[in-house]
Amino acid sequence: MLLTILLLIDLSSGVHASPLRISNPLTNCLNDHIVPQAGRNLPPAEIINNAFGRCYNLMEDWLSRYSPARRQQLRQALFDYYIDWLVQIEQHHKLPK
Predict the structure, then answer these.
(1) Mean pLDDT, residues 82-97 taken together
(2) Do 48 and 86 contact (CB within 8 A), yes or no?
(3) Are 86 and 38 within 8 A, CB to CB?
(4) How much is the pLDDT for 20?
(5) How does pLDDT run across 26-62, given as a tens digit for each residue?
(6) Which residue, among 51, 28, 39, 25, has the nearest Cα to 85 in the 3D structure?
(7) pTM exceeds 0.85, yes or no
(8) CA-CA distance, 16 to 14, in Å (whole number)?
(9) At a CB cut-off of 8 Å and minimum separation 6, what does 81 contact?
(10) How many angstroms separate the CA atoms of 4 and 91, rounded?
(11) Looking at the predicted structure, is the pLDDT value of residue 24 above 70?
């Protein structure tokens, strides 16, 4: 019973996973190039496109197992995630203290 509960907890933890909390070569590369730029008054899309360019080989390796349509969906999902994250950081920095 305890083993079943632990397995369910472990499996469910990935359901709401954040790229900022996942550790693999692609997300490490993206985070290394995106996180330090947060809050620096650069357009979020520019930050992300730059990171995607620097992490291109890792991105292509990760996406290679998927169909072209799915690759585009996954790229867009990562892009959207990081846009949302950077916008939230930007809004947080603009809050009155």
Answers:
(1) 80
(2) yes
(3) yes
(4) 56
(5) 999 999 999 999 888 889 999 999 999 999 999 999 9
(6) 39
(7) no
(8) 6
(9) 18, 19
(10) 41
(11) yes
Average pLDDT, the chain: 81
Which is nearest to 82 in space by CA: 25, 16, 24, 37? 37
DSSP assignment of the chain? -HHHHHHHHHHHHTTT--TTT--SHHHHHHHHHHGGGTTSSS-HHHHHHHHHHHTHHHHHHHHTTS-HHHHHHHHHHHHHHHHHHHHHHHHHHHS--
- Cα of first residue to Cα of last residue in the chain, in angstroms, is 49
Is the CB of residue 66 less than 8 Å from the CB of residue 3? no
Amino acid identity of 3? L
The residue among 45 and 93 whose pLDDT is bigger is: 45
Burial of 78 per CB tally in 10 Å (0-12, 13-18, 19+) = buried
Q: How many CB atoms are located within 10 Å of the residue 81 CB?
A: 15
